[in-house]
Design goal:
alpha/beta, Glycerol-3-phosphate (1)-acyltransferase, 7-stranded mixed beta sheet, 21% strand
Amino acid sequence: MHPPKQHPIIHFFFSWYINRLIRSDFKRFDFDRVEVDPNRAILLLANHFSWWDGFLLFQLNRLLFRKRFHIMVTEENYREVWFLKYLGAFSVKKKSRSILETLNYAGSLLNDPRNLVVIFPQGKLYSSHADDIIFEKGLMNIINSSQKNFQYLFAAILTDYFEHRKPTVKCFLQTWEGAEFTSLQLIKSEYNKHYDASKKQQNQLSV
């Protein structure tokens, strides 16, 4: 496992750069305003369909929650996109002995109320037109490695162009309170209810 690294200057520069990229490449970046408990960490679960997803959620946190951003990425992305580590990225290598170390580390981050941890439960990129979002089993390792005093946040990221050259991206957000012994199947079911509702709202949009 490769953990995040601290460098305030690099973090500041790429925060500015990501903000500039999003403003340049999208017509708008819209998101729901939701209330969260400042005394608990956030576990943010999101669909994963593009290169942009992590950057959009980084921007979301910067604008809305302002917590310490952490995101689990593949070891390949951690190595290839060198600055990710300075933005809170930590790596997971699938089918390796270190995967449990990474999942336990992610769980420990949820014990600090200053943190926000992004997990893509699908584990890899899927089409934005997927009917439902699959959940890999590793999520429960993360949850069970924590003190279970965090809050869940569901994010469904969807885009449309309409008549514009650049797309508008909308991040539909919903908080959810899980029971102490929440199961993977229940989390998956509740997330997909949010995902389906988000797609229906998106389909009602017009120019």
